[in-house]
């Protein structure tokens, strides 16, 4: 299965490289072509609207918001670098830390894989789900001065560690996994004035994961990272923005990639909202 995944990824990269090189060669004589680099930093807070997880078929479908201490706000940050290859092509690298820690006193028994955390047990909870994202966008309105609209694709690398530990250290369970998630991407921008702009961006997919990665296990997964942003140019290289974001998704099914002691069954769905401020430096 690993070999099949590598072959699939290699073919996809070769196909993209060929198409991109053809477009860049065609546009090479255009005097308006230029390369622009943008560094983006975003910081704010995250609100858990809904978050539930289950490990093993006999495990508890645990509600992190109602029973796991995720009913408060958590800090969030995000870093990205964007490379414009002329007015048509854009490459993006994004790093999104996502670490949520809480501590609760259980009101009911909690079963994680083959371990039962009894009611009235104090538990430390860790939901660490950072991801790395590589994206390509192709601009469809390159001749329009006020509006941009681009579509493309994203390859996301998830790096998950989810753990449950009793405060006295006697009970502990953790589940870890690294996986590749392809998705579609779109981005639209309206220049409202010489200084003010508005922007919509989304990465998302809903599909059987087994179909995408060649696994024999039936897993249904989804991601959606959608944001609305309004910004203002402070001076020539710097702009600042206010951002509202929905971050959601998850998966359900039996996975052989998640490294846990149970039967491999996982059900994990989350719906987060973030509010943030950011800065863009362009050169």
Explained architecture:
By secondary structure, the protein is mainly beta. The chain has two domains: 1-32; 34-282, Lipocalin (Beta Barrel). Helices cover 12% and strands 62% of the residues. The protein is built from three helices and 15 strands. It has a ten-stranded antiparallel beta barrel. Strands 6-7 form a two-stranded antiparallel sheet. The longest helix is centred in the N-terminal third of the chain and has 25 residues, at 2-26. Residues 1-7 and 20-32 have low confidence and may be disordered.
Quickly list its features:
283 residues, mainly beta, Lipocalin, 2 domains, 10-stranded antiparallel barrel, two-stranded antiparallel sheet, 3 helices, 12% helix, 62% strand, elongated, disordered N terminus
Quick overview of this protein structure:
The chain is mainly β. 12% of the residues lie in helices and 62% in strands.
Q: Describe the main β-sheet briefly.
A: 10 strands, antiparallel, barrel
Assigned CATH architecture of the largest domain: Beta Barrel
Estimate percent helicity. 10-25%
Mean pLDDT over all positions: 87
What is the number of independent domains?
Answer: 2
- From the N-terminal CA to the C-terminal CA, the straight-line distance is 43 Å
The geometry reads as elongated
Strand content: over 45%
Structural class of the helix and strand makeup? mainly beta
The number of distinct β-strands equals 15
Q: Report the CATH superfamily of the largest domain.
A: OMPT-like
- Strand line-up of the largest beta sheet: 1-3-4-9-10-11-12-13-14-15
Please compute the radius of gyration using only Cα atoms.
21 Å
CATH hierarchy class name of the largest domain: Mainly Beta
User: What is CATH's topology name of the largest domain?
Assistant: Lipocalin
């Amino acid at each position: 299965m690993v070999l099949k995944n590598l072959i699939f990824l290699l073919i996809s990269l070769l196909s993209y490289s060929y198409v991109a090189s053809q477009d860049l060669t065609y546009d090479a004589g255009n005097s308006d072509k230029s390369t622009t680099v943008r560094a983006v930093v975003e910081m704010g807070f995250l609100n858990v609207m809904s978050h539930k997880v289950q490990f093993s078929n006999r495990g508890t479908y645990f509600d992190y918001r109602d029973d796991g201490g995720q009913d408060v706000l958590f800090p969030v940050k995000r870093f990205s670098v964007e490379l414009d290859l002329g007015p048509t092509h854009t490459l993006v690298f994004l790093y999104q830390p996502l670490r949520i820690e809480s501590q609760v006193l259980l009101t009911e028994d909690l079963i994680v894989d083959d371990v039962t955390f009894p009611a009235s047990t104090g538990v430390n909870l860790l939901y660490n789900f950072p991801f790395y994202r590589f994206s390509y966008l192709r601009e469809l309105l390159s001749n329009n001065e006020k509006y941009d609209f681009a579509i493309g694709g994203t390859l996301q690398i998830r790096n998950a560690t989810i753990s449950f530990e009793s405060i006295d250290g006697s009970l502990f369970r953790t589940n870890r996994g690294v996986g590749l998630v392809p998705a579609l991407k779109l981005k639209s921008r309206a220049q409202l004035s010489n200084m003010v702009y508005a922007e919509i961006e989304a990465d998302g997919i809903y599909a059987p994961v087994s179909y995408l990665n060649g696994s024999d296990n039936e897993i249904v997964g989804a991601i959606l990272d959608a944001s609305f942003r309004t910004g203002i140019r402070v001076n020539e290289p710097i702009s600042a923005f206010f951002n509202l974001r929905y971050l959601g998704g998850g998966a359900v099914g039996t996975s052989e990639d998640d490294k846990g002691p149970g039967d491999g069954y996982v059900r994990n769905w989350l719906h987060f909202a973030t509010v943030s401020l950011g800065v863009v430096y362009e050169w």
